[in-house]
Amino acid sequence: MVTAETAVALPAMVLLAALLIWGLVAASAQIRCVDAARAGARAAARGDADAADVARAAAPPGATVEVVQEAESVRVTVEAPCPGPGRLGAALSARLGASAVAAREDVTGGGGEAAPWPS
Predict the structure, then answer these.
(1) What is the DSSP string of 39-60?
(2) Contact at 8 Å (CB) between 36 and 58?
(3) Rounded Cα gap, residues 49 and 24, in angstroms
(4) Which helix (H) or strand (E) covers residue 24, if one does?
(5) Among residues 21, 31, 23, 95, which one has the least CA distance to residue 58?
(6) What whole-number distance in Å separates Cα of residue 44 and Cα of residue 73?
(7) Which tens digits make up the pLDDT trace of 82-96?
(8) Distance from chain centroid for Cα 71
(9) Multiple choice CATH, 2-109, 3.30.1300, 2.40.10, 1.10.150, 2.120.10
(10) DSSP codes, 66-113
């Protein structure tokens, strides 16, 4: 009787363990996307020409990076695929992403002077 119950429960436990591990991998990839977007935004705000490369280096494998320069800020968006575990890869795949915005450091207030600090 115990053998029959184990035979029924064991596949469910293996599937649950695989899904939990995939959840940890997906959470880790999401954190890497956030870190990559922040690093790219900081680099672009400083005026670095290789801001996209900085973000790509910190992003998960296969990630796409988009850098958009606006008048007073810069926005970096990082998106990465996260395939599901094993044979369930196509059914459980997810698209992860993050964006970060930073104020451009080369932009100043009117008349070429630095903008006043708010009090």
Answers:
(1) HHHHHHHHT-TTHHHHHHHHSP
(2) yes
(3) 34
(4) helix 2-46
(5) 31
(6) 9
(7) 887 777 667 777 889
(8) 25
(9) 3.30.1300
(10) EEEE-SSEEEEEEEEEE--SGGGTTTS-EEEEEEEEEE-TT---GGGS
The H or E element that residue 65 is part of is: strand 64-69
Joined together, the tokens standing for residue 75 give: 């926005």
Flag whether pLDDT at 32 surpasses 60: yes
CA distance readout (Å), 29 to 11, 22, 26, 85, 97: 27, 10, 5, 14, 9
Report whether pLDDT(111) > 70.
no
CA distance linking residue 75 with residue 64, whole number of Å: 14
Which residue do the tokens 């080369």 mark? Answer: 106
Pairing label, strands 64-69, 73-82: antiparallel
Residue with tokens 């400083």: 46
